[in-house]
Amino acid sequence: MTATYTVDVFSSLDGFGTTSGNWGGYWGKQGPELLAHRLSAYGAEQRMVLGATTYRVFARMLAASTDESEVRDAWVTRMRNLPATVVSNTLEGPLDWPDATVVPGDAVDVVARLKQESDVPLRSHGSLSLNRALMAAGLVDLVQVTVFPVITGQTGTEPIFQGAADFDLDLIGSRTLDGRTQELVYRPTLHV
């Protein structure tokens, strides 16, 4: 049996993962329902899979934050305390992450092996280029997109699916959080 792999990303309505503007984290749209739902999603036993760039961004953000900042939301703290595999040919351990292991090699090979060997589900938050490659290889079981109610046409950076292959998506779950933010969960199938 293979472990389920979930790609978990945040997005503006126009498909950007981050912004160069002054929006703040969550584009300033986080609410108690969103934060509680995120904590619940990360409460189950699972293994995180991160690329080197995302690991570096998370490590830098956490190092620069205080216990009171939104960067240290309860779900982020929980995510950081989950076991993690960082796929990288440039990083070397030990990492500033409690239970992280650096695994060099091709991401497709590393994750294919993880899916076969893992007793728990696999989840990646961010890691856009890594996850586009995994989707193209057919290794992604679920795509969970949290869409925040903003359009960042002038300040949006990092288009989530730019350069990705074409996929048909079957919607298997959706919910509205705090009356304004949408979580959409899809099962992707490569479009041929």
CATH class: Alpha Beta
Report the CATH topology name: Dihydrofolate Reductase, subunit A
- Which homologous superfamily in CATH is the superfamily? Dihydrofolate Reductase, subunit A
Are there runs of 5+ residues with pLDDT below 50, and where?
Answer: none
- Quaternary status: single chain
Tell me, what's the shape? globular
Can you list the strand order of the major beta sheet?
5-4-3-6-1-7-10-9
Strand content: 25-35%
Sheet with the most strands, sense and barrel status:
8 strands, mixed
* Gap between N and C termini: 26 Å
Q: Domain count, please report it.
A: 1
Radius of gyration: 16 Å
Q: What is the tally of beta strands?
A: 10
Return the structural class: alpha/beta
Order of helices and strands: EEHEHHEEHEHEEEE
Task: Explain what this protein looks like in three dimensions.
With 192 residues, the chain is α/β, with parallel strands linked by helices. The chain has one domain: Dihydrofolate Reductase, subunit A. Helix content is 27%, strand content 32%. The strands form two sheets. An eight-stranded mixed β-sheet has the order 5-4-3-6-1-7-10-9. The protein has a two-stranded antiparallel sheet with strand order 2-8. A hairpin with a 3-residue loop joins strand 9 and strand 10 (181-190). Helix 1 (32-41) runs parallel beside helix 3. The longest helix is centred in the first third of the chain and has 13 residues, at 52-64. It is globular, with a radius of gyration of 16 Å. This is Dihydrofolate reductase family protein. It holds the Pfam family RibD_C. InterPro entries: DHFR-like_dom_sf, RibDG_C. Residues 6-179 form the Bacterial bifunctional deaminase-reductase C-terminal domain.
